[in-house]
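thread: overnight batch results

M.L. [08:02]
morning all. the overnight job finished for the chain we discussed friday. pasting input first so we're all looking at the same thing
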Amino acid sequence: MRKLSIDEKIMTGIRNRDEQALADLYDRYHRIIWNIARQADPNHSVCEQLVTHVFRAVWTKPQDFMHHRKLLASLIDCCRTQLLFLHNKT
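M.L. [08:03]
and the structure it wrote out:
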């Protein structure tokens, strides 16, 4: 039997509505997401919106982040997609 990765354990917790799992995910990846957001838009408020959006999306639709690819890649894609959306609104 294959041992679950840390990301798989976290996502299983999130799928089961475990708030600590979301906190663990945030602690693990928020700096990376923040840096990607900041590279694209140095506005502090926009960066906060992007980071919040990514982790809210994971909480509300965890199934969208449980692909056969790295979780971090899915988080980055979510951030970049929202960034494009925000920039197209202005």
